Amino acid sequence: MKVELNLISKEKALEISKVLENGIPSINRVLIASPKNSKNRTTSGGIILPDNAKENIPRKGVIIQSGIIEEDNWKSLLKVGNIVTYGIYAGKEVEPENLSTIDYPDLEFTVLSINEIIYIELNK
Predict the structure, then answer these.
(1) pLDDT at residue 116 is higher than 90
(2) CB atoms within 10 A of CB 90
(3) How far apart are CA 7 and CA 21, in angstroms?
(4) Strand blocks (E) in 9-122
(5) Which residue from 36, 33, 45 is spatially nearest to 9, judged by alpha carbons?
(6) Cβ neighbour number for residue 94 with a 10 Å cutoff
(7) 84: closest CA among 30, 36, 42?
(8) Do the beta carbons of residue 71 and residue 28 sit within 8 Å?
């Protein structure tokens, strides 16, 4: 079952990153933006999913910023605009200070440790 997640584009991720440049995540962490959990999640075919089916939806977000990455094998993968999949209880939701200047009310921001990332999709 493919679910439409309405992730932001790489260009929007870069735009948000510039607005939030007065702070960065700590070492080996990334800041991601993902759509807020809306009540009406639908599949690509237009089927509305009930609340109990939403547990099986993968959690994905777009990297907005990354802290200093100490592990060499991660440095080239954790770039602004790449899409990451993470576990249901992973990360810590945050509200960046300049959030009021961003016109994206349907986004939530989460800081993830690189150990919490399950899968990375390169967004070219």
Answers:
(1) yes
(2) 16
(3) 21
(4) 29-35, 59-66, 83-86, 92-94, 107-113, 117-121
(5) 33
(6) 14
(7) 30
(8) yes
pLDDT in tens, 16-25: 888 887 788 8
Tokens describing residue 56: 């099986």
Please tell me the pTM assigned to this model. Answer: 0.80
Among 19, 7, 18, 10, which Cα is nearest to 79's? Answer: 10
- The neighbour count for residue 30, using CB atoms within 10 Å, is 28
| Cβ count near 69 (within 10 Å) | 18
pLDDT band at 99 (very low <50, low <70, confident <90, very high): low
